[in-house]
Structure formats: C-alpha cells, structure tokens
Specification:
Layout lengths: L10 E2 H7 L5 H9 L3 E3 L2 E2 L6 E2 L5 E3 L2 E2 L7 E6 L32 E2 L8 E7 L2 H8 L7 E11 L1 H9 L13 E4 L7 E8 L6 H8 L4 E9 L2 E2 L9 E3 L2 H12 L2
Helix pairs in contact: 1-2
Bound molecules: uracil.
Uracil (URA) binds next to helix 5.
Length: 254
C-alpha cells in the first residue's frame, strides 16, 4: 500500500469487486458468471482474472474504481462506540464506522478509542500499518484534548499532572503538557491537555488524581492531524493528501 492509498499489485477480479462492496465473494462470482462485469470494455467471466492498476473494471456498465485505503476524519458524537462493526458485541449498538456513509471498504476501523461520552477527532481508516504506528507507545504521538472539569484545579495541580501522576497503574503517567483555556483565573476548570500515551480512560483518571472530574472531553488533535472545526458532531470528511502525508511524515522523522 502507498501513502496515497493506491493499490500497488495485481489482484483477482472477484476480490477487486468484493473489496469495493459489490457483494460477497459468492455474489460477485455470480455477477461475473452472468456477464455483468467488463474489464477494459470487454465482458469477463473469469473470476480469477488478474486485474492491474491500469485496468478499467465496470459492473453493469458503471466503472468501479479501486480504493485500497480510505482515510476519514470524524467529529465523533457522544453516544457512539469507538469500534469497527466486527468488534461489536451487540448488533444494535451504533459504532463510529456506521457514521461513514460514503465508505467503500468494509474493513474500516477507528485508530484508537474514545470513550462513549467523549467527542471530537477520530481517524477512521483501513490502513493497518499507519494505525499501528500511530498507536505505538514508542512513537509518542501527541493527542490534544479539551477538558471541562467539575472542580477547578490550581497551577500546582497542573504542574503535578504535567510531571506525571499515579493513576493506579504500574507506572505513573508520562510527562504531558497542559494550559488553561482562555479567559479564566485560577482555579481552572477548562483545560487543554496533550498526552503521548493512550491508557484506558487516561484523561479522566489523571484529573481524578488531582481531585476533579471530567464533565466534557473533546479530542482536538492527534499528531499533526487537527479536528476540522467546520465538521458538526457526527460529521466527517475524507482526509486530504496533505493530511495523509503529514501523518506518515510525522512517524518517519522519529
Ligand atoms: N482519556 C479519557 O479519559 N477518555 C477518552 O475518551 C480519551 C482519553
């Protein structure tokens, strides 16, 4: 797979169509056998025919372009679970991938998890290699959140949090950066915080360690990727090539 999400090898015709959501493998085989599929304008009845980048595949006269990797930025709303369809235990639960109506691929998943009540930036893709690297603890990818707190915290509390606190795990949290949101005086109840780890309920547990509770949590950034504030909660858009490239670049320089 390339950084631009292009396909770099030949593949079977039935897999090509299946990947692009034309049906299950057996449904696609039937479509091919019925003569509904053409390659470069000629009917193709061999499901195992290898198609390459330059080949034009059409189903019932409509060209099907291949997308190897898809990348979406979702402004996650509250009440939706950060999981792929395949991860869901209860079929009736709504997961973040269901919100991407225009998806072509069936193998999309969220990169990392946000709690059900957390809103904001979530990267959704099927690029496993990129996801793996973004989530690797070794890469120290920064994640910035905006948090509203039940009780304001002092500068001293912020200093403690920035140095690392005990949240009941084996090790204290790693150093992180915090700043109060604009227009407040101490104690601060609206905070921007950037962490380089991804422990379970980490932000909530960190503020709990200094005696406060998170009442609203929104993720604003992940590495170089910033939430597009023009997206309403529940809204999404495809990443631009520049954003995809910036994510890759941020991982190779370290
Ligand atoms: N930390 C949390 O506590 N919750 C999230 O959803 C993300 C980070």
């Amino acid at each position: 797979m390339t950084a631009s999400g292009e396909r770099d090898t030949a593949m079977r015709l039935d897999k090509y169509l299946c990947d692009m959501g034309a049906g299950t493998r057996s449904e696609v085989k039937k479509l091919i056998a019925a003569g509904r599929v053409t390659v470069n304008g000629l009917p193709e009845k061999n499901a195992g025919r290898k198609v390459e980048e330059r080949d034009r595949v059409a189903l019932s006269g409509e060209e099907i372009l291949y997308t190897a990797c898809e990348y979406y930025m979702l402004n996650k709303p509250a009440g939706v679970i950060s999981a792929s369809r395949a991860d869901l235990r209860k079929q009736e639960e709504r997961c973040v991938v269901d919100l991407i109506d225009s998806r072509k691929r069936k193998d999309l998943f969220p990169v990392g998890r946000l709690d059900k009540d957390t809103v904001g930036l979530l990267l959704i893709t099927n690029d496993g290699q990129l996801a793996h690297r973004l989530l690797s603890p070794k890469k120290h990818v920064g994640k910035t959140y905006y948090a509203e707190l039940s009780r304001g915290i002092s500068r001293e509390d912020m200093e403690r949090l920035s140095q690392g606190v005990d949240i009941g795990d084996e090790k204290p949290t790693l150093p992180c950066s915090l700043r109060p949101a604009e227009g407040q005086q101490e104690p601060f109840s609206r905070i921007y915080i950037t962490i380089c780890e991804g422990r379970f309920h980490q932000i909530k547990r960190m503020f709990a360690a200094v005696g406060s509770q998170v009442t609203r949590l929104k993720r604003l950034a992940m590495g170089p990727l910033r939430l597009d504030e023009s997206l309403p909660e529940g809204g999404y858009r495809a990443l631009t090539q520049t954003e995809i490239q910036a994510l890759y670049n941020s991982l190779t320089v370290k």
